[in-house]
Amino acid sequence: MSAVAAGAAPRAAAGPVTPRTARRLVRLLPLLAVLVLLAVPPPGGAGGGDGPGSGTLADAASGVLVLWAFGSALRAGSRPLAPLAAALFALAGVGIAVAAAGAGEVADALPGMARYLQIFVLVPVSVLLLVRDRHDFRVVAGALVALALFEGGVGVHQYLTVTGASYMGEDLRAVGTFGASDIMGMATVVAYGLVGAVGLALAPGARTPEPGAWAGRARRPLALVCATVLLLPLALSFSRGAWIATAIACGVLLLLSGVRRALLVVVAGAALAVVLVGGAGAGTALLQERLSSIAQVADAPDQSVTDRYTLWSAAVGMWRESPVRGVGLKGFPAHRDSHAPLALSSGSDTAGAGAAFHRQPLLSPHNMYLLVLSEQGLVGVCTLVAGWGALLVCAVRRLLRVLYGSGRASGRDADCGLVGTGLLVWLLVDFFYGDIGGPSTVLTAIVLGLAAWWAVGRRDGSGWGARR
To answer: Does a structural domain hold residue 16?
Structure first.
């Protein structure tokens, strides 16, 4: 009997594609399809905002994802969400509906409500429903890293061939397949992939090893290589906000995984950054200038920073005018000019990456928190922003419990916790410098869903997530 059992175990783990693996891939197919379609250039090469006709194939696929996830939950006939998860997302939905009801223009408010529900409620909940255990999470995290590697490769090619977006008079800025009108698209994708790879690389080994590339011995070195490779396209994106958010997110993960390791990685990372920036050739001066400009945002801000300050001021002015409910969803553009200082320019210039010169209007404050405050008032802050804070607290508590507390025995969930927490930290830090809009926005919803799965997903003994 023991011989049979001993011989059965290797056969069960040997085949890379088992019936369970096949079922998992089928279940996750709509979610993976959204990630794949994010790499498809937007129609006409427009980076677009969130207005009519700005939808992409990834947005359409996210609709299929929602129908698939909710249909699967109905067929299962069981309670699919943990009570806290259901409460947080239901509260966010109520706040969005209240903000839409208080908008002055119904024609603008309804599309805005649909967009907010898609990004902050429906798609994240769909991810919660479809990702059932740590194995599902690793599949999606691996796909996210793969998407980042693809977009980063396109961005590096754009830089080397001078076919990227216009920056300082040259078409050097790496923007991937998102185009010049969504210059943050590639930077966001690459940063998510880099943070995810760092989380996978920092995870301690489990006491009881599991089969699989991401859970086996090859996972950590492979993730470390991916994180190293992604540093270059992130640098060539020239995105100060993405740099800051990535540095903070990776720093938080390093500290959570151990102070000694954090110090070693910081020293090695600084040396590697010097080598990578030095290898950028002609772009070294531009990178140094961009880095130095981070410290000059208060003393000698450039026009882009000045525009951001004036937009922030306009958002605060709108909130003071209507502190409880704000000016209504999609109300910022209509109220901008009556609240913005005279220093605000008429728009930002975009060109390159296959697109002609275009003057892009400034229709948001480029700060998600101020956007919610101005358009949704204290209602939005208490229902939406407070929910993000609750997710962060729950994510860090669960991660610390797995790394150092009662969940330390197996360590199998540590990589998922590091990835989920790191992605959430990146998102919440980046929201100080940006908001939703553009073809890459649907990825924000998926990342929020992954973070929510770790933070408030149902725990069923063998893993985190929905009930099997």
So the answer is: no
467 in any annotated domain: no
Instruction: State the pLDDT confidence band at 465, using cuts at 50, 70 and 90.
Output: very low
Give the structural domain span for 235: 26-38+54-302+352-456
- CA geometry: angle 57, 65, 441, nearest 5 deg: 50
Q: Are 411 and 401 in contact (CB under 8 A)?
A: no
What is the mean predicted confidence (pLDDT) over 290-311? 66
- What predicted TM-score, i.e. pTM, was given to this entire model? 0.86
The per-residue pLDDT for range 164-223, each reduced to its tens digit, is 888 777 888 889 999 887 888 999 999 999 999 999 988 876 444 554 444 456 778 899
Total number of domains constituting the chain: 1
Looking at 38-42, 126-130, 421-425, which range is the least confident one? Answer: 38-42
Residue 316 lies inside a defined structural domain of this protein: no
Residue 312 lies in a domain: no
